[in-house]
Amino acid sequence: MFTVQSEPFDSLTLYRLRNEETGECAAIVGDYGAILHRLSLLTDNDQLIQVIDGYETAEQLLAEGSRSFRGTLLFPFPNRVRDGRYAFDGQSYQLPVNEIDRGHALHGHLYHAPFEVVAEGASETGAFLILEYEADGKAEGYPFKYLLNLDFRLDEAGFSCKTVIQNLEERDIPVGIGYHPYFQLGDNADEWLLKLPVESQLEIDDRLIPNGEERIPARYQEFASLKGDVLDNAYRVRPTEGEAITQLVNPGQNVTLTVWQRTGPGQFNYLQVFTPESRRSIALEPMTGAPDAFNNGQGLIRLAPDQILEATFGVRVE
After folding, report:
1. Which residues, other chains included, contact 144 with Cβ-Cβ below 8 Å and sequence gap of 6+?
2. Distance (Å) of CA 262 to CA 46, 53, 188, 192, 265
3. How far apart are CA 83 and CA 86, in angstroms?
4. How far apart are the C-alpha atoms of 9 and 13, rounded to whole Å?
5. Phi-psi region of 22 (alpha: psi -120 to 50; beta: other; left: phi over 0)
6. What digits encode the pLDDT tens for the residues 192-227?
7. What is the dihedral of CA 246, 252, 254, 257, to 10 degrees?
8. Domain 2-317: assigned CATH number
9. Mind listing the pLDDT tens digit for each residue in 32-50?
10. Closest CA relative to residue 33, chosen from 131, 176, 171, 125
11. How far from the centroid of its chain's Cα atoms is residue 28's Cα?
C-alpha cells in the first residue's frame, strides 16, 4: 500500500510519498522550490538505500539552498545566462545576477518559490503529488505569465518527476527546464563508477559559458571511475528512442542507480554533471537546453500562447 503524508519540516512542509510495505519514500519540500529532499529506493537484493543528498534541517536548506541548488527545479532556464542578459523577439532583458563571482544569472528563479498542492493520491500501486506555481508576469528579467505543474510519482517502477509548463501569454515565451538532484551511493564519489548517455561535451570558456565548440567526451561513454575527477561538464545527449539512461554504480555495495530522462523535441536532450567539493554526492542534471541557451539557442524552446510542454525524468535502483 502506498500513502501520501505531510509533516512539518521546521518552518517548512515536507510531503512524503511512501510504499508502506517496502519503506521506499520520496520526500519533497513543497513550499520552498519543490525540492526533492530525500529518496529511498529498494534494490534487487532488498537493500533500502538513500540516493538523494538532501538537507539535515530546514535551517540548512534556507541557508544553503540558493547556493547549492540541491534538489531544485531549474526554470525558466537551467544553468547559466551570460551576464544575466538575453534578447527575445527583438526585446532585451536583464535577469538578476545571482552567481556573483562569475557575473551570471544561474538556474532560473523558482529554486525558492512557494508551490501549492493541487492534487495528491495513493493506491495499492503508487502515490503521486502535484504541485503548482502560477507566475504573474512580474519577475525581473522574465516578465511572462505561465502555469507550472510538477507531478511527482512513486510506484513499483521507481520515482518520476514530470514538469508541465503552459504559456499564459498572448505571445511566444522562451523556456528551458532542468532539475538539480544530487545523488549518492555511499559516502564517497571516489568509490563509484559512472556511465553517461552522451554524444558530445560542450567546450566552455573561463566563465563556464559554452564557446560554440563540442568534442567527443574523453570518459564516461563506458563505465569509468570517478576517483579524483572534478566535474562541471555540460553534454549533449545521444539521440535515443524515448529515454536516455545515466548509470551510477557502487561496486562495493553491488548497487546500480539509473537516472532516465525523456528525449526528443522539447525534452531533456542535455545533461550537466557536477561533483561538489564534499565528494559525498554527484549532481546529474537533466536539461532541455545547453548552458546560456537563452543566448546561443542550443535547446531553447519557444512556447506559443496556450501551448503546453512536458518534460520527465526518473530514478530507479538495481
Report:
1. 76, 135, 137, 167, 169, 173
2. 28, 23, 28, 24, 10
3. 9
4. 5
5. alpha
6. 999 999 999 999 999 999 999 999 998 999 999 999
7. -20
8. 2.70.98.10
9. 999 999 999 999 989 999 9
10. 131
11. 13
pLDDT at position 273: 98
| Helix%, strand%, coil% for the chain, nearest 5 | 5, 50, 40
Neighbouring residues of 68: CB distance < 8 A, sequence distance ≥ 6: 182, 276
Which of 268, 251, 252 minimizes the C-alpha distance to 260? 268
The residue with cell 540558493 is: 66
The secondary structure element, H or E, covering residue 176 is: none
Measure the CA dihedral 23/48/273/96, to 10°: 30
Helix (H, G, I), strand (E, B) or coil at 122: strand
Round to whole Å and give the CA distance between 267 and 175.
Answer: 11
In 3D, which of 103, 108, 98, 181 has the Cα closest to residue 144? 108
- Amino acid residing at 154: L
| SS3 category, 167 | strand
Confidence label for 65 from pLDDT (cuts 50, 70 and 90): confident
Grid coordinates of 19: 510504499
Q: Which three cell numbers stand for residue 292?
A: 546560456
Phi/psi for 316 (5° steps) reads -150, 165
